[in-house]
């Protein structure tokens, strides 16, 4: 692997926050809102959709599985392509794929067509996750990276809230047999508006440097500096230029960065298993324990999304103040204990779920930050794609395991979620002892 000397990365990190950074983050950060929106909107309109297209119960459940299959494929394929061909091309292509898959779902007239369109939408959003996180980590100044990444992750809960309210409005306003189609039509069309914004988002200078394209990277950095009105004088540093294949990238992740990968995989595993496990556990099991109607269950879920949004934003703010290590250990430890709140069967479930979500759903705002920033730019998107596969696979299996145990005794379901949290807590404790504190550190120093 050869190296090149440049001062561009240091110049990016010394820039003050500008209007360009705000536009950049808004244009790319919408991915998390879309991800949550897609998951929740399908759940909200699945019943009328299944009735209209005459799905069996097994086929109905595969609508969610189809999206996850697509997301897994998209994460791996587009993650690698983002490292090879650039972030900009991919975060436009993946958004087009997501928009197309979502819009076409509204035209589905059979299980086969609906399942195929769900895979397309999932592939687009899976690829989004890898390309977007990479670009943001590589463009945002180091001292702001934690709060920006954390805030974007917290916006998942905003997408959940929006989808719940949107589905409720459509199902009240239109006949159920057609309302589900409108949900997908409008969802796909709104996404196209984001593509217009993204056309003006530049390529990641760090990715360009890793490919030896210094002149293009210099032009982008100078353009941002002109907007700010400064041109800082900083020391140059050596940046590696990677020219290997997908197999070379995989070997690097599993050898040189294997301990970081195990930590990151533990984060992805914990976030997705606890989220999807609880998302199935609440309506299928806890609703019986607390004698909740369908409407009351929806209200409890809504309170959880609000709690997660508040907690996530607070944690995002603390990322660059307290640091990743202390914050990660604290939040994962508290989340592990928070599972036992649901043993208080005499307490209002809205209050309990709000408190649980306030803590537990904020964990991603620190875990995803550190899990994605600890890789070098030349393999970051692919590494994130692999991590996404780990998380989505385990997240898909978690509801089955949790509900199977909970059907014997709901406390066994709680114990299962507790053990999922224990994985993340243990991994963060080990990282806190042996790993780097990445707060405010340039990407190059971390990797």
TrEMBL record:
Q: Which residues form the Major facilitator superfamily (MFS) profile domain?
A: 24-439
Q: Which domain of life is it from?
A: Bacteria
Instruction: Show the GO MF annotations.
Output: carboxylic acid transmembrane transporter activity
Alphabetically ordered keywords of this record: Membrane, Transmembrane, Transmembrane helix
Q: Which InterPro entries match?
A: MFS_dom (IPR020846), MFS_sugar_transport-like (IPR005828), MFS_trans_sf (IPR036259)
- Pfam families from the UniProt entry: Sugar_tr
Query: Which cellular components does GO assign to this protein?
Result: plasma membrane
Q: What protein am I looking at?
A: MFS transporter
Organism this protein belongs to: Thermocrinis ruber
């Amino acid at each position: 692997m050869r190296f090149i000397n440049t001062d561009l990365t240091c110049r990016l990190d010394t820039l003050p926050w500008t209007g360009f950074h705000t536009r950049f983050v808004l244009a790319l950060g919408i991915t998390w809102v879309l991800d949550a929106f897609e998951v929740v909107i399908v759940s909200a309109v699945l019943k009328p959709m299944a009735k209209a297209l005459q799905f069996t119960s097994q086929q109905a459940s595969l609508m969610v599985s189809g999206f996850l299959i697509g997301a897994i494929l998209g994460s791996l394929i587009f993650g690698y392509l983002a490292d090879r061909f650039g972030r900009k091309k991919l975060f436009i292509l993946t958004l087009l794929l997501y928009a197309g898959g979502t819009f076409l779902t509204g035209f589905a007239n059979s299980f086969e067509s609906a399942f195929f369109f769900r895979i397309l939408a999932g592939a687009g959003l899976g690829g989004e996750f890898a390309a977007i996180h990479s670009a943001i980590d590589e463009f945002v100044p180091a001292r702001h990276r934690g709060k920006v990444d954390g805030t974007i992750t917290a916006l998942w809960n905003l997408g959940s809230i929006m989808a719940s309210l949107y589905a409720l409005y459509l199902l009240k306003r239109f006949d159920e047999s057609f309302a589900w189609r409108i949900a997908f039509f409008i969802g796909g069309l709104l996404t196209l508006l984001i593509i217009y914004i993204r056309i003006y988002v530049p390529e990641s200078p760090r990715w360009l440097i890793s490919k030896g394209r210094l002149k293009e990277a210099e032009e982008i950095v100078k353009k941002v500096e002109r907007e700010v009105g400064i041109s800082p004088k900083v020391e140059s540093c050596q940046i590696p230029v990677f020219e290997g294949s997908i197999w070379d990238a995989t070997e690097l992740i599993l050898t040189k960065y294997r301990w970081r990968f195990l930590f990151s995989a533990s984060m992805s595993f914990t976030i997705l298993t606890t989220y999807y496990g609880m998302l199935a556990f609440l309506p299928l099991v806890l609703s019986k324990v607390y004698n909740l109607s369908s409407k009351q269950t929806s209200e409890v879920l809504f309170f959880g999304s609000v709690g997660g949004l508040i907690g996530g934003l607070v944690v995002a703010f603390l990322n660059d103040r307290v640091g990743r290590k202390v914050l990660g250990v604290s939040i994962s430890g508290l989340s592990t204990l928070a599972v036992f709140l649901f043993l208080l069967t005499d307490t209002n479930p809205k209050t309990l779920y709000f408190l649980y979500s306030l803590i537990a759903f904020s964990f991603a705002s620190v875990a995803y930050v550190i899990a994605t920033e600890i890789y070098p730019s030349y393999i970051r998107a692919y590494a994130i794609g692999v991590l996404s596969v780990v998380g989505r696979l385990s997240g898909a299996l978690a509801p089955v395991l949790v509900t199977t145990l909970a059907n014997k005794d709901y406390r066994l379901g709680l114990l299962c979620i507790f053990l999922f949290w224990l994985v993340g807590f243990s991994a963060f404790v080990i990282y806190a002892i042996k790993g780097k504190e990445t707060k405010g550190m340039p990407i190059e120093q971390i990797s």
